[in-house]
Amino acid sequence: MNRARILGGLFFVVIAAFGVAAYGADTDAHPSELFKQNCAKCHGENGKADTTRGKNLKARNFTDAEWQADVTDSQLIKSVTEGKGDDMPPWGKKLTPEQIQSLVKNDVRGFAPKK
Fold it and tell me: Percentage of residues in the chain with pLDDT exceeding 90?
């Protein structure tokens, strides 16, 4: 009987630890793999556009609080979808509208300085 309680307790601890690990897992990693694959070449994985390519193209620094406050999500979605002149390619034919919205809402906005 004592052995059954110990085994039951151990089983509970293992299940609880697994639940905590699963809950704490970073399923919404920032930046996302989509951002890393398509945007980080210019904007950098840190969003500061401090890559060689980003500096050459004068890519947007997503950590700029003033810029973050001035631009709307719809403006960003349009820029990602249609591109911006010769400097930023249009992603609307390569990415779905849902992917573009996710990039804007989770990645680009995720670089905004925390208040």
Answer: 70
In the predicted structure, residue 49 carries a pLDDT above the cut 60: yes
Residue 86 DSSP SS3: coil
pLDDT at 76: 97
85, 17 contact by CB (below 8 A)? no
Distances from the Cα of 84 to the Cα of 2, 16, 58, 115, angstroms? 70, 49, 12, 29
Whether 71 maps to a domain, the answer reads yes
50 within domain boundaries:
yes
Q: Two tokens at 105?
A: 């809402």
For 40, the domain range is 28-111
